[in-house]
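Encode chain A's predicted structure.
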Amino acid sequence: MIFRYKQYQVQKECYKMIKNNKIGVVLPAYNAAKTLKQTFDEIPQDIVDEIILTDDCSTDETTKVANELGIKHIIVHQTNKGYGANQKTCYQKALELGCDIIVMLHPDYQYTPKLIRSMCYIIAEGVYPVVIASRILGKGARKGGMPLYKYISNRFLTFFQNLLMNQKLSEYHTGYRAFSREVIEQLNLEADSDDFVFDNQMLAQIFYSGYEIAEVTCPTKYFEEASSINFKRSVKYGLGVIFTSINYLLAKTGIKKNRIFKSKTMNKTIPKT
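Encoded structure for chain A:
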Protein backbone atom coordinates (compact mmCIF):
# COMPACT_ATOMS: atom_id res chain seq x y z
CA MET A 1 0.00 0.00 0.00
CA ILE A 2 2.84 2.39 0.86
CA PHE A 3 4.52 1.61 -2.48
CA ARG A 4 1.30 2.29 -4.38
CA TYR A 5 0.80 5.57 -2.55
CA LYS A 6 4.32 6.74 -3.39
CA GLN A 7 3.83 5.63 -7.00
CA TYR A 8 0.59 7.62 -7.13
CA GLN A 9 2.36 10.70 -5.75
CA VAL A 10 5.08 10.42 -8.42
CA GLN A 11 2.50 9.99 -11.16
CA LYS A 12 0.56 12.96 -9.81
CA GLU A 13 3.65 15.18 -9.89
CA CYS A 14 4.54 14.07 -13.43
CA TYR A 15 0.96 14.68 -14.55
CA LYS A 16 1.22 18.32 -13.54
CA MET A 17 3.82 18.96 -16.21
CA ILE A 18 2.76 20.25 -19.63
CA LYS A 19 4.53 18.25 -22.34
CA ASN A 20 7.30 17.39 -19.86
CA ASN A 21 7.82 21.05 -18.96
CA LYS A 22 8.09 21.88 -15.27
CA ILE A 23 5.98 24.98 -14.55
CA GLY A 24 6.95 27.58 -11.97
CA VAL A 25 4.97 30.65 -10.90
CA VAL A 26 6.93 33.44 -9.26
CA LEU A 27 5.25 36.07 -7.09
CA PRO A 28 7.37 39.19 -6.47
CA ALA A 29 5.58 40.49 -3.40
CA TYR A 30 5.57 43.71 -1.42
CA ASN A 31 2.76 44.41 1.05
CA ALA A 32 0.51 41.84 -0.63
CA ALA A 33 -1.09 40.37 2.50
CA LYS A 34 -4.60 41.52 1.59
CA THR A 35 -4.58 40.14 -1.96
CA LEU A 36 -2.24 37.16 -1.84
CA LYS A 37 -4.90 34.58 -1.00
CA GLN A 38 -7.16 35.67 -3.87
CA THR A 39 -4.24 35.40 -6.25
CA PHE A 40 -3.06 32.07 -4.85
CA ASP A 41 -6.52 30.48 -4.96
CA GLU A 42 -6.81 31.08 -8.72
CA ILE A 43 -3.42 29.64 -9.66
CA PRO A 44 -4.13 26.41 -11.60
CA GLN A 45 -2.20 24.03 -9.38
CA ASP A 46 -3.17 21.06 -11.53
CA ILE A 47 -0.42 22.19 -13.94
CA VAL A 48 1.85 24.33 -11.72
CA ASP A 49 4.72 22.46 -10.12
CA GLU A 50 6.38 25.20 -8.07
CA ILE A 51 5.16 28.46 -6.54
CA ILE A 52 7.85 30.88 -5.39
CA LEU A 53 7.19 34.04 -3.40
CA THR A 54 9.82 36.66 -2.64
CA ASP A 55 8.83 39.16 0.03
CA ASP A 56 10.78 42.39 -0.52
CA CYS A 57 10.81 43.36 3.17
CA SER A 58 7.07 44.03 3.41
CA THR A 59 5.70 46.05 6.32
CA ASP A 60 2.53 43.95 6.49
CA GLU A 61 1.95 40.20 7.04
CA THR A 62 2.73 39.02 3.51
CA THR A 63 5.12 36.29 4.68
CA LYS A 64 2.72 35.10 7.37
CA VAL A 65 -0.12 34.76 4.85
CA ALA A 66 2.19 32.95 2.42
CA ASN A 67 3.08 30.43 5.11
CA GLU A 68 -0.58 29.94 6.02
CA LEU A 69 -1.36 29.22 2.37
CA GLY A 70 1.32 26.55 2.30
CA ILE A 71 3.55 28.20 -0.28
CA LYS A 72 6.62 26.01 -0.23
CA HIS A 73 9.27 28.39 -1.49
CA ILE A 74 9.28 31.71 0.41
CA ILE A 75 12.27 34.04 0.25
CA VAL A 76 12.38 37.15 2.44
CA HIS A 77 14.62 40.12 1.69
CA GLN A 78 15.87 41.61 4.95
CA THR A 79 15.97 45.05 3.31
CA ASN A 80 13.82 46.49 0.57
CA LYS A 81 15.88 45.86 -2.56
CA GLY A 82 13.39 47.07 -5.17
CA TYR A 83 10.94 45.59 -7.65
CA GLY A 84 13.59 44.57 -10.15
CA ALA A 85 15.81 42.96 -7.52
CA ASN A 86 12.75 41.08 -6.26
CA GLN A 87 12.23 39.54 -9.68
CA LYS A 88 15.90 38.63 -10.01
CA THR A 89 15.63 36.61 -6.80
CA CYS A 90 12.46 34.93 -8.10
CA TYR A 91 13.98 33.90 -11.43
CA GLN A 92 17.17 32.65 -9.83
CA LYS A 93 15.18 30.37 -7.52
CA ALA A 94 12.95 29.13 -10.35
CA LEU A 95 16.01 28.14 -12.38
CA GLU A 96 17.52 26.39 -9.35
CA LEU A 97 14.31 24.37 -9.00
CA GLY A 98 14.57 23.26 -12.62
CA CYS A 99 11.55 25.09 -13.99
CA ASP A 100 11.20 24.98 -17.79
CA ILE A 101 8.46 27.62 -17.99
CA ILE A 102 8.40 30.51 -15.54
CA VAL A 103 5.35 32.71 -15.05
CA MET A 104 5.77 36.08 -13.32
CA LEU A 105 2.55 37.23 -11.71
CA HIS A 106 1.94 40.20 -9.42
CA PRO A 107 0.27 38.92 -6.23
CA ASP A 108 -1.89 42.04 -5.93
CA TYR A 109 -4.79 40.38 -7.82
CA GLN A 110 -4.74 43.03 -10.53
CA TYR A 111 -4.31 40.23 -13.11
CA THR A 112 -6.25 36.97 -13.16
CA PRO A 113 -4.11 33.84 -12.66
CA LYS A 114 -6.66 31.95 -14.77
CA LEU A 115 -4.61 32.78 -17.89
CA ILE A 116 -1.58 30.85 -16.66
CA ARG A 117 -2.69 27.66 -18.36
CA SER A 118 -3.10 29.31 -21.78
CA MET A 119 0.16 31.22 -21.52
CA CYS A 120 2.11 28.10 -20.58
CA TYR A 121 0.65 26.01 -23.40
CA ILE A 122 1.78 28.59 -25.98
CA ILE A 123 5.35 28.17 -24.74
CA ALA A 124 5.16 24.41 -24.20
CA GLU A 125 3.92 23.88 -27.75
CA GLY A 126 6.90 25.84 -29.08
CA VAL A 127 4.74 28.57 -30.64
CA TYR A 128 6.43 31.47 -28.81
CA PRO A 129 9.14 31.51 -26.11
CA VAL A 130 7.62 34.50 -24.29
CA VAL A 131 3.98 35.42 -23.61
CA ILE A 132 2.74 38.60 -21.98
CA ALA A 133 -0.78 39.35 -20.78
CA SER A 134 -1.87 42.67 -22.27
CA ARG A 135 -4.35 45.00 -20.60
CA ILE A 136 -4.54 47.11 -23.77
CA LEU A 137 -5.70 44.45 -26.22
CA GLY A 138 -9.47 44.74 -26.15
CA LYS A 139 -11.03 47.07 -23.57
CA GLY A 140 -9.73 45.48 -20.38
CA ALA A 141 -7.68 48.42 -19.12
CA ARG A 142 -10.23 51.22 -18.95
CA LYS A 143 -13.07 48.81 -18.19
CA GLY A 144 -11.09 47.51 -15.22
CA GLY A 145 -10.56 50.99 -13.86
CA MET A 146 -7.14 52.02 -15.18
CA PRO A 147 -6.82 55.78 -14.53
CA LEU A 148 -7.02 57.85 -17.70
CA TYR A 149 -3.58 59.42 -17.22
CA LYS A 150 -2.03 55.95 -16.86
CA TYR A 151 -3.81 54.75 -19.98
CA ILE A 152 -2.65 57.74 -22.02
CA SER A 153 0.94 57.47 -20.80
CA ASN A 154 0.88 53.71 -21.49
CA ARG A 155 -0.24 54.33 -25.06
CA PHE A 156 2.30 57.10 -25.63
CA LEU A 157 5.25 55.12 -24.26
CA THR A 158 4.22 51.99 -26.16
CA PHE A 159 3.99 53.94 -29.44
CA PHE A 160 7.43 55.46 -28.80
CA GLN A 161 8.94 52.07 -27.98
CA ASN A 162 7.44 50.31 -30.98
CA LEU A 163 8.80 53.08 -33.21
CA LEU A 164 12.37 52.92 -31.87
CA MET A 165 12.48 49.16 -31.41
CA ASN A 166 10.62 48.26 -34.62
CA GLN A 167 8.06 46.10 -32.81
CA LYS A 168 4.27 45.90 -32.56
CA LEU A 169 3.39 45.14 -28.96
CA SER A 170 0.15 46.54 -27.60
CA GLU A 171 1.93 47.38 -24.32
CA TYR A 172 5.29 46.95 -22.58
CA HIS A 173 4.13 47.61 -19.03
CA THR A 174 2.17 44.57 -17.89
CA GLY A 175 3.13 42.73 -14.71
CA TYR A 176 2.04 39.34 -16.01
CA ARG A 177 4.52 37.42 -18.17
CA ALA A 178 5.64 33.89 -19.01
CA PHE A 179 9.07 32.82 -20.23
CA SER A 180 10.82 29.68 -21.35
CA ARG A 181 13.85 28.68 -19.30
CA GLU A 182 16.07 29.31 -22.32
CA VAL A 183 15.05 32.97 -22.47
CA ILE A 184 15.69 33.62 -18.77
CA GLU A 185 19.11 31.97 -19.00
CA GLN A 186 20.03 34.02 -22.05
CA LEU A 187 19.30 37.45 -20.57
CA ASN A 188 21.84 39.47 -18.59
CA LEU A 189 19.38 40.25 -15.80
CA GLU A 190 22.09 41.23 -13.33
CA ALA A 191 22.82 44.27 -15.49
CA ASP A 192 19.22 45.46 -15.28
CA SER A 193 17.86 48.01 -12.84
CA ASP A 194 16.61 46.97 -9.40
CA ASP A 195 13.72 49.42 -9.84
CA PHE A 196 10.50 49.32 -11.87
CA VAL A 197 12.18 49.89 -15.25
CA PHE A 198 13.53 46.33 -14.90
CA ASP A 199 10.39 45.04 -16.65
CA ASN A 200 11.05 47.24 -19.66
CA GLN A 201 14.73 46.45 -19.87
CA MET A 202 13.89 42.77 -19.81
CA LEU A 203 11.58 43.04 -22.83
CA ALA A 204 14.21 45.08 -24.69
CA GLN A 205 16.77 42.36 -23.99
CA ILE A 206 14.36 39.71 -25.26
CA PHE A 207 13.87 41.51 -28.57
CA TYR A 208 17.59 42.25 -28.84
CA SER A 209 18.32 38.53 -28.42
CA GLY A 210 16.05 37.74 -31.35
CA TYR A 211 13.10 36.20 -29.50
CA GLU A 212 9.48 36.91 -30.38
CA ILE A 213 6.77 37.76 -27.88
CA ALA A 214 3.13 36.68 -27.99
CA GLU A 215 0.31 38.63 -26.32
CA VAL A 216 -2.95 37.45 -24.81
CA THR A 217 -5.83 39.69 -23.80
CA CYS A 218 -6.06 40.12 -20.05
CA PRO A 219 -8.77 41.79 -17.97
CA THR A 220 -7.45 43.91 -15.14
CA LYS A 221 -8.68 45.26 -11.83
CA TYR A 222 -7.79 48.57 -10.23
CA PHE A 223 -8.71 48.89 -6.57
CA GLU A 224 -7.25 50.26 -3.35
CA GLU A 225 -5.18 47.17 -2.47
CA ALA A 226 -3.72 46.78 -5.98
CA SER A 227 -0.09 47.88 -6.23
CA SER A 228 0.65 51.20 -7.87
CA ILE A 229 3.42 53.78 -7.96
CA ASN A 230 2.97 57.47 -7.28
CA PHE A 231 3.25 60.21 -9.89
CA LYS A 232 6.89 61.03 -9.15
CA ARG A 233 7.98 57.42 -9.54
CA SER A 234 5.79 57.10 -12.63
CA VAL A 235 7.71 59.98 -14.23
CA LYS A 236 11.01 58.32 -13.30
CA TYR A 237 9.76 55.05 -14.79
CA GLY A 238 8.64 56.80 -17.99
CA LEU A 239 12.05 58.41 -18.46
CA GLY A 240 13.69 55.06 -17.86
CA VAL A 241 11.49 53.50 -20.53
CA ILE A 242 12.47 56.18 -23.04
CA PHE A 243 16.19 55.76 -22.31
CA THR A 244 15.86 51.98 -22.59
CA SER A 245 14.33 52.31 -26.06
CA ILE A 246 17.02 54.76 -27.17
CA ASN A 247 19.75 52.46 -25.86
CA TYR A 248 18.14 49.56 -27.74
CA LEU A 249 18.25 51.54 -30.99
CA LEU A 250 21.88 52.56 -30.41
CA ALA A 251 22.85 48.94 -29.71
CA LYS A 252 20.98 47.60 -32.75
CA THR A 253 22.59 50.14 -35.08
CA GLY A 254 26.04 49.43 -33.67
CA ILE A 255 26.58 52.97 -32.38
CA LYS A 256 26.84 52.14 -28.69
CA LYS A 257 25.96 49.03 -26.72
CA ASN A 258 24.55 49.59 -23.25
CA ARG A 259 25.64 47.04 -20.63
CA ILE A 260 22.18 45.45 -20.46
CA PHE A 261 22.68 44.23 -24.04
CA LYS A 262 26.10 42.74 -23.40
CA SER A 263 26.70 39.07 -22.74
CA LYS A 264 26.24 37.75 -19.24
CA THR A 265 29.27 37.93 -16.99
CA MET A 266 27.92 37.28 -13.49
CA ASN A 267 25.17 34.76 -14.23
CA LYS A 268 25.96 31.24 -15.30
CA THR A 269 23.56 28.71 -16.71
CA ILE A 270 22.09 26.79 -13.78
CA PRO A 271 21.78 23.03 -14.32
CA LYS A 272 18.24 21.66 -14.07
CA THR A 273 17.49 19.76 -10.91
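Residues 1-12 have pLDDT under 50 and may be disordered.
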